[in-house]
Design goal:
149 residues; 4 helices; two-stranded antiparallel ribbon; globular; alpha+beta
């Protein structure tokens, strides 16, 4: 095996290559469930500071349409931005931890953070897209199964 190919393979195995590219999952589009959220979801707001931490531009609370369901002791939430219906935030909360995945209708992971509610000041941590991929896939799969008739 050539040294370059070996090095590239090692980087991919360690998750060090391509970490800044959006991660496309195998589950597919979130369009159907996003449409349902926009039509039937509860009104909600996200505070400016948290919206900015997720990489959204905000100077006032961000209006959302929200769907939610419980599964295996976790609360799963799908938020669609009211003024940007292509932007979706998937959330999984379990005990004191919350995982937040910024995505779009196509299901491409754009950004991910985890929040530890047990830390009073500064419980937010950025995740690389590679670190977040498995949890994102699982949450998309849960929403796909939940949305199926």
């Amino acid at each position: 095996m050539k040294p370059f190919a070996l090095f590239t393979g090692l980087l991919l195995a360690l998750g060090l290559a391509g970490c800044s590219k959006p991660v496309q999952s195998g589950v597919g589009s979130l369009s159907e469930v996003a449409d349902r959220a926009a039509a039937e979801g509860q009104d909600a707001n996200m505070n400016v500071g948290f919206a900015r931490f997720l990489g959204l531009r905000a100077d006032q609370p961000v209006a959302l349409k929200r769907l939610q369901f419980e599964q295996n002791g976790a609360t799963n939430t799908l938020n669609v931005l009211a003024n940007e219906p292509n932007t979706i935030i998937l959330v999984k909360r379990q005990q004191l931890l919350g995982w937040f995945y910024l995505t779009d209708r196509s299901g491409s992971l754009k950004r991910a953070v985890v929040n530890d509610g047990g830390i009073a000041d500064g419980g937010l941590t950025n995740l690389t897209l590679m670190e977040a991929a498995a949890g994102f896939e699982a949450l998309k799969r849960a929403w796909s199964q939940h949305a199926s008739p």
